[in-house]
Specification:
homodimer; alpha+beta; five-stranded mixed beta sheet; 30 strands
C-alpha cells in the first residue's frame, strides 16, 4: 500500500497565488444550494418537542391532539416502535436515548412531529402534551461536585477521573524559580451559533437513506447514522455541498438527523428537520467554560522552570471533555510541568468541539501569566517568549518539530506591528488610554493522515476531482482545484469538483482540527500525479520515447527532445480510446520521528475610555507559521475570522444560565452578543510567515483555521493591562466589568 | 496501461443464478425517479413550436403575442442571440441549425417557449405566429432519386455514395450454382416509441450545466452537449438514473436537450422539456425502411455459392444510414458475395439506431430466401442452414469466431421446438392452417472495449460501485452488482451502485449495440479484483503471510494456512485506518486475432385463418448463443422483448406518410399498432445455449439485446409460408394483406 512520496514543490505557478474562489459566484449570488434549500414536491417538515426544564423526568406524553391537527403526518415519541434508539457518545457508549424520559438539560428532545408545512409542524409540536416531573438542577459547574448537588447522571457529576499530565519535578522547579506568578482565570461558555442553523433533509429510496445535511464531515456523519440505524455504510448517503459555518459544532450527527430519517421512514416521504436559532443555542454545542489556576516560575533571565495548571470545566449534561491544558505543556520549553483538569456534568447542553477546543482558554491564562512574568522580570513580553521557544515537543517525547516558526512569528510580527515603539509610547495621560499586548500560541494536532482522492481526466483535458472532504466555507474546493491545476496544467475553470458526498466520493476525514488542507492536498496531489504518470506513459508508448522525457502542459504533451515534439490531447490515442484516465491518491503517513504543528503570535492595540469602561480594539496583527500559504484569500479569511472570534471570546460572548430556573436567558442573537463589524479593527493585518515545511507533507502546508483564534483574546487582555494596569482574568472585557474595575481603584 | 487479464471464471456462485433486480422495488413501487420526475421549486416547462409541413421555409416568426401570455418566461427562435447553433450529424458536420428556417420534415423545430406550467408553455407555443412558404416534398424513397424530385438538401437527395461490399466473383458463383433464387423484399419504417418519451431537465449552477435526461449513454450525450455549447466536458453533467426504453433512439442528444439548456440559461431557472407522444413519433428516430433485392445461388447439396444484395433505403431528411446488408456477408459461409446499398433523403424525420440496425431487415430478406432455397433444393431449412454455418468471419479477413454457437442454436432449438414433427405434421386441411418456420441470425458488432469502473470498499465491507453505463431497463445494475458480489463476497444488498452520471462516475460507452454487459462486466470484475488484491495485501502485511494464501469471504479474510486463520474486517488495521479501498478496473482489449459475436436461431409456429387472413403466432422459441448467461431474468426479458418487437416488425408496425400532404397519419399509439399481450404467444421459450466464451473476455458473455429480435419476423414469415404457401415479402403480415393474397389465388 506504500506509495512513493513525491518530492516537495519548489516554486509553484498556481498554488499560493491570489485567485478568487471557484464557487464564488454561487456563494454570492444565492445560487448555492445549502441543505436547507433541498426540497421535494412531497417534502414534509419536522418540529421537535423539547423539554423546557433544566432537569426533569417525562411522566406522560399525549400526542392525540397533535395527531389530529391539520397537515400532521407522523408523531414520534419515546414510545414509538423502533424510535427510541440508544444514544452513544463517542466510545463512551449509550448514556441516553433518542427521546430520553430523563431530560438532563433545557431543550432535550421529547417528541417530534412531521407535517406538510413548517408552521403546521410547529403548531403540532406545541400541541403535544407532556407531563414533566421537575427535578433539582445544577447549572454552575463550581457547584456540581459539592456534597448534595443534584446528580445529572445516576453515576454522579464527575465525568471520569481528572485528566493529568506531568513531566519533571514541578515542586523542585518552583523551588528553584526566582520569580513565581500564580493566578486564577475564568473563561466564558461560548455558543458556536453559525450563520446556518443545524438540520437535515432525509429521504429513503428503498433501503437506502440519503441525508442532505449541514456538517463538517459527511463520512463521520455517515458512520454515526449507520451505527444508530444499523445499516451498511454504503446504504447511507450523506451530502453536504455547501455549509454556512460550523466551527466544530457540525462534526457530530445530531438527533435532528436521526429524527428526520425516522419520520421519513414512517411517512414514506422526505422530511426536513432544521433547528430554530433558539434551539441551536441550547442543543448543538458550546465551548465549555473553564476555571484555570496557573502557576509559573522562571529564572531571572526569563527561562521558564515550572508550570502548573489546575482546571475545572464542564462539557454540560453529557460527556465531551473540557480539557484546556495543552499549551501549558508544549508551547514553551519548560522542564517541569504538571496539569490536572476535572470535567463535571451540569444541567446544560453538551459542549462540542469549538475552534481549537481548549486552546483559547489556555492561552487566556498562560499568555496573561507570561505577560505578568515579563512585567515582574522587567523583560519585554516578546523577548520573554522568544527566550522559551521550543524546538522539540516536550509533550511528545521530545520529538523535533518539522518546523518551528514561533520565533519568526514573534520577531517579524513585532517588527510589522511596530511593537517596540508602541510599547514605549506613553499610554496617554487623559481619560482615554492606549496599550499594546502580545500573545502566542500553537495548535496541538497533526490531523489524521487519511484521505483518498480520485481524479478523473477527461478526453478534452478537463478534470473531475472527487474528494470526500467538506468545504466548510474555508475555500477547500479552491485549494484543491489549485493543486490539480498545478500538477495537470488545467485551468481552474476546467476543473469540476464533486465533494462531500459519501455516495460518490472516496472517504475523507472531517473538516475540523485545522487538518483539511494539509491532509487532503497531498492526496489530491498524489491522485493528480497518478493521472499524469498514466498520461505520460500513454504518450511515451505512442511517441516511442521515455516517459521521463515528457511533460504535461495545458492541452498537450511536450517532449523535451531531442527531437522536441508536441502531442495534442486529441491526438493521444489511448486517452481518446479510453476517454478517461482515473488517478487515485492517498495522503502518505506523517513522518514517524517528527511532529508538524503550526505556530502563531498575535499583537493587539486597544483604547480604553477610563470614564465609561469602553474598550476598542484598534489594531490586530496575526503572524502565522502555518507552512506554505496555499490559497492567500482563504488564508487571510481564516486569520481575520479567527481574530474576530477571539474578540468575541474576550469581549462579548457568553452563555448565561439563570441560577433560579437553570434556563438560558440569552438564547438568541439579540441577547447573545456576537462581535459585529463595529467591534473589529478596520484593517486587521495578516502576516504569513509562509515557510514551506518540506518535511511534514508533500505540499508544505500546516493548519491555519484554529491557530488563528487561539491567542487573540489573551493579546487583547494584555493590551488592556498595558493600557490600564488592570489584569482581566474573567471575560467579558465589557464596559460593565471595566467600569467596575476602573472605578474601584479610584 | 496493460493490466493482467484474470483467468476466466469457472463455476460461479452469484453470477448466472436467478436473482431479482436490485432496483425491483423502486421500479414497481413508483419510487424510481425518472428524468421526467426531477423537479425544482422554480422549474419552468418548455414547449417547442414545430413545422406542420413536410417541407417549408420559415418566412417570419412573430413571438410578440406569446411573450405577453401568462407565465411565459422566455421565447427562443432562430433569431435569438446565441440560439441558432449549427447542428451536427456525427462526423458529417453541420447540415442544419437548431432552429433551421429550412424545415425539411414535419415536426422540425422552429421556436421554443418556457413558462411556469406545461399548459402555459403549450398555449404560448401555439400562439407563436409562423409564416411558412410551403415547398414541394418527397416522402416516398423510391421517388427520391427520380429526375425532378424535390430536393431535400441543396446537394440533392443522395446521402453519399452507395455502400458497397464484395468478395470472390459473384458472377462466377451464380454461373456455377445449380439453384438460384431471387426476390425483392420491402421492410416497414418502424418507430421506436418507447414507453417513456424523450426529454430533459436542464439546470445551470454558475458555469456548470446539469442535465437530467432519458438516454442510453450519459457520456455520449455529454460529448454532444459540450460540442454544441462549446464547454469543457467536465462542466457538463448528464444524469440518467432510470429510463423507460430507448431501443437505440436515445443514443444521441436531442434538440430538446439543447433547447432546455438554452432556455434555462436565458431564464436563470431550471427548465423541463419533454416531448409529447405525437412529437416523439415525428422527431426522435425510426428504423429506416428498405427495399432489398436478394439473389442466392447454391449447389444441389445446399452449399451456398453466391449472394447478391441490392438495397435502397432512407434515413429520412438527415444522414444516419440505412444499411442492411451485414447478414448477407457474414451469417453463412459463402465464397462470392456482393452488396450495394443506396441511402436517400426524403422529407421525413431522421432515423436513429433501432435495435440491431439493419439486421431484422436483412434477416427478413435473407432468411426467406434461404427458406425458398431449401424448398427448391428439397432440403430441410434447418439442415440447409447447418450446411453453411461459418467458423470464421469472411467479412473480417477470415478471422475465426471465438465461439460459434449457431449450429447448436439450430440443432438444440429444433430439438426443443419439436421442429421435425411439426414440419412433418399436415398443415390442416380446413379453413385454419398451421405452419412452422425457422430463421437464423447473428449480431455484427463486438462493442467498444472501453469501460472504466471504480469500486469502493468501505470499512464494514459494504461496497460502492461507480459505473458510467446506463441501465436501460435490461438489468445492468443487477448484473454488475452480481459481478461485484461474486468477487468480493459481499451480499447484493450491501452493494450500492452509482451509475450513469458523468459528474460522479468514470467514462463508459453507451448502452446500445448489445455491448453493455460484455463491455462493462469485465471492467467491474477487474475493479473488484483490484480491491481484493489490496485487501489481501493489507491482510498479508498484518498477518505476516503471503497474500496468495489468503482469500476474501463475506466480512472476513481467511488464511488457508497452515496455520489457518480468520481476520474480521473490523480487525484489518489498514482498512480501518484508510476507511476505504478504491479499485479501478478497465475492460481489456478484444482478442486481436479473433472475433466474438453472438448467434441466434428463432422458431415460430403460426395459425392462419384462410377465410379472414388473421394470423396468430402460436409459439416462438429463441435459441441463443450469447455466451455466458450472467443474469437469467434479464436474459429472458431480452429474448421475450426482442421476439415481441419482431412480431411488431412482421405484423403490426409501420409509419404511414400521407402522399398528399407528406405528413404522418398515424403518429399516435392508437393508429400506430404496437403488439400487445394478445398478439404474443402465451409461453414463448427462451433457450440459452450458454457456452462460456472464455476467449472473448474475462466473464464469457456476448451480447443478447439485439440478436433477440433479428430473425423473429423472418421465422414468422417462413411459418406463414409453410402454412399457406404464400411468400410474404412486405410486412405487415396483417389480415388486410393476407386476405388479399389468400383470395387472389382462389
Amino acid at each position: 500500500m506504500t506509495e512513493t512520496r513525491p518530492a516537495p514543490w519548489g516554486e509553484t505557478t498556481v498554488v499560493g497565488k491570489p485567485r478568487p474562489r471557484v464557487d464564488g459566484f454561487e456563494r454570492v449570488s444565492g445560487r448555492a444550494v445549502y441543505a436547507m434549500d433541498v426540497t421535494f414536491p412531497d417534502l414534509l417538515h419536522a418540529a421537535i418537542v423539547r423539554c423546557p426544564h433544566a432537569h426533569a423526568r417525562v411522566r406522560k406524553v399525549d400526542t392525540s391532539k397533535a395527531e389530529r391537527m391539520p397537515g400532521v403526518r407522523a408523531v414520534l415519541t419515546g414510545g414509538s416502535p423502533g424510535a427510541n434508539l440508544p444514544w452513544h457518545f463517542g466510545e463512551k457508549g449509550p448514556l441516553s436515548l433518542l427521546f430520553d424520559p430523563h431530560c438532563r438539560h433545557e431543550g432535550e428532545e421529547v417528541a417530534a412531529v412531521a407535517a406538510d408545512t413548517p408552521q403546521q409542524a410547529k403548531d403540532a409540536a406545541r400541541a403535544v402534551a407532556v407531563e414533566y416531573e421537575e427535578l433539582p438542577f445544577v447549572v454552575d459547574y463550581a457547584d456540581a461536585l459539592k456534597p448534595g448537588a443534584p446528580a445529572v447522571h445516576d453515576s454522579g457529576n464527575r465525568n471520569g477521573e481528572p485528566d493529568k499530565y506531568e513531566r519533571g519535578d514541578v515542586a523542585k522547579g518552583f523551588a528553584e524559580a526566582e520569580v513565581v506568578v500564580e493566578r486564577t482565570f475564568k473563561t466564558p461558555c461560548e455558543i458556536h451559533t453559525p450563520m446556518e442553523p443545524h438540520g437535515s433533509v432525509a429521504k429513503w429510496d428503498g433501503g437506502r437513506l440519503t441525508v442532505w445535511d449541514t456538517n463538517q464531515g459527511v463520512f463521520d456523519i455517515r458512520s454515526g447514522l449507520a451505527q444508530w440505524l444499523q445499516m451498511p455504510l454504503t446504504r447511507v448517503r450523506v451530502i453536504s455541498k455547501y455549509m454556512g459555518g460550523g466551527f466544530g459544532s457540525k462534526l457530530e450527527p445530531g438527533k435532528y438527523t436521526v429524527i428526520a430519517a425516522l419520520l421519513a421512514r414512517k411517512t414514506g416521504r422526505p422530511v426536513r428537520c432544521f433547528l430554530s436559532r433558539e434551539e441551536s443555542f441550547l442543543c448543538v454545542g458550546n465551548r465549555p467554560p473553564n476555571t484555570l489556576t496557573l502557576k509559573a516560575g522562571a529564572k531571572k533571565d526569563g527561562t521558564l522552570l515550572a508550570l502548573q495548571l489546575t482546571g475545572l470545566g464542564t462539557s454540560g449534561a453529557y460527556p465531551d471533555g473540557s480539557g484546556a491544558g495543552y499549551l501549558v505543556t508544549d508551547l514553551y520549553s519548560c522542564p517541569n510541568v504538571r496539569t490536572e483538569e476535572t470535567d463535571v456534568f451540569i444541567n446544560a447542553g453538551k459542549s462540542r468541539a469549538f475552534r481549537a477546543p481548549g486552546f483559547p482558554q489556555c492561552a487566556w491564562a498562560l499568555e496573561q501569566v507570561m505577560d505578568e512574568l515579563a512585567e515582574k522580570l522587567g523583560i519585554d513580553p516578546v523577548e520573554l517568549r522568544l527566550k522559551n521557544v521550543p524546538t522539540v515537543s516536550q509533550r511528545r517525547k521530545n520529538q523535533p518539530f518539522t518546523s518551528t516558526g514561533l520565533a519568526r512569528c514573534l520577531r517579524e510580527g513585532a517588527e510589522a506591528f511596530g511593537w517596540k515603539a508602541a510599547r514605549a509610547t506613553p499610554r496617554g495621560g487623559g481619560a482615554v488610554v492606549r496599550g499594546v499586548g502580545v500573545a502566542a500560541g500553537m495548535w496541538g494536532w497533526e490531523g489524521e493522515p487519511r484521505s483518498t482522492i480520485i481524479v478523473k481526466y477527461a478526453a478534452d483535458g478537463s478534470v473531475d476531482l472527487g474528494m470526500g472532504a467538506s468545504d466548510i466555507g474555508t475555500g477547500t474546493k479552491t485549494v484543491m482545484a489549485m493543486v490539480v491545476a498545478e500538477e495537470l496544467g488545467a485551468p481552474l475553470d476546467r476543473i469540476q469538483i464533486d465533494h462531500a458526498d459519501t455516495g460518490t466520493t472516496p472517504s475523507a476525514v472531517s473538516s475540523g482540527g485545522s487538518q483539511t488542507t494539509h491532509v487532503n492536498a497531498p492526496a489530491v496531489r498524489a491522485a493528480a500525479l497518478d493521472v499524469k504518470r498514466q498520461l505520460l506513459e500513454m504518450a511515451a508508448e505512442q511517441l516511442k520515447v521515455e516517459a521521463t522525457s515528457l511533460s504535461l502542459e495545458e492541452g498537450e504533451i511536450v517532449a523535451a527532445g531531442p527531437p522536441e515534439a508536441k502531442l495534442a490531447l486529441k491526438d493521444l490515442k489511448s486517452l481518446q480510446e479510453q476517454q478517461v484516465v482515473v488517478g487515485v491518491g492517498h495522503r502518505h503517513p506523517h513522518p514517524k520521528d517528527k511532529i508538524g504543528l503550526p505556530f502563531v503570535a498575535h499583537f493587539a492595540e486597544v483604547e480604553v475610555d477610563t470614564r465609561t469602561g469602553e474598550v476598542r480594539v484598534l489594531r490586530l496583527l496575526g503572524a502565522h507559521d502555518s507552512g506554505r500559504v496555499m490559497y492567500p484569500l482563504g488564508y487571510e479569511n481564516q486569520v481575520f475570522g479567527g481574530m474576530t472570534m477571539g474578540i468575541g471570546f474576550a469581549m462579548t460572548e457568553e452563555r448565561r444560565l439563570d441560577p433560579n430556573t437553570g434556563r438560558m436567558v440569552n438564547a438568541n442573537w439579540h441577547d447573545y452578543k456576537l462581535p459585529t463589524a463595529l467591534d473589529v479593527p478596520a484593517k486587521p493585518v495578516c502576516l504569513p510567515i509562509d515557510p514551506h515545511d518540506t518535511e511534514i507533507n508533500t505540499v508544505g502546508a500546516k493548519g491555519i483555521g484554529e491557530p488563528a483564534t487561539i491567542p487573540t483574546a489573551a493579546a487583547i487582555a494584555n493590551a488592556v493591562h498595558h493600557a490600564t494596569g488592570l489584569r482581566i482574568t474573567e471575560p467579558s472585557i465589557n464596559p460593565v466589568q471595566m467600569a467596575q474595575k476602573l472605578w474601584a481603584r479610584r
